[in-house]
Amino acid sequence: MEQIQGGTNVDAGRTSILLEEAQAVVQAAMEKAAEIGQPMNVAVVDNGRDLMAFARMEDAWLGSIDIAINKAFTSASFLMATEDLAGMTQPGQPLYGLETTNNGRVVNFAGGIPLMRGEEVAGAVGVSGGTVDQDQEVAEAGVAAF
After folding, report:
1. Which residues 6+ apart lie within 8 Å of 143 measured at CB?
2. How many CB atoms lie within 10 A of CB 142?
3. What is the pLDDT of residues 21-53, one digit of tens each?
4. What does CATH list as the number for 14-144?
């Protein structure tokens, strides 16, 4: 059975991430960010790309709020980690210009990772506030909690 949510077909079963799971992903990511000493913004979206959970650590950049949310949006939209889009969106590559689509919400650098339930995307996590390597490390910690 499917329901229409925000113009997107969303599986009404248990494929999509649950609120408690989304909160656990955010918590694990925030713990990793605290461990490395970098304030971060952490977002989790469901498989319909809608925001399920978000946290901004004290002193995390305000400008990174939208970036974290959009990294999660991008990862859920294209069913891949945002770091994997980086090479494909460079000039001369097959997806060059992709970041100009979806009303500018596509992010093509590290920090967004799909959350998989078996073979299905249940949602995605997006992290922003540090270097791309730090963002990726913190996002991976969130994924590990899923």
Report:
1. 25, 113, 115, 125
2. 29
3. 999 999 999 999 999 999 999 999 999 999 999
4. 3.30.450.150
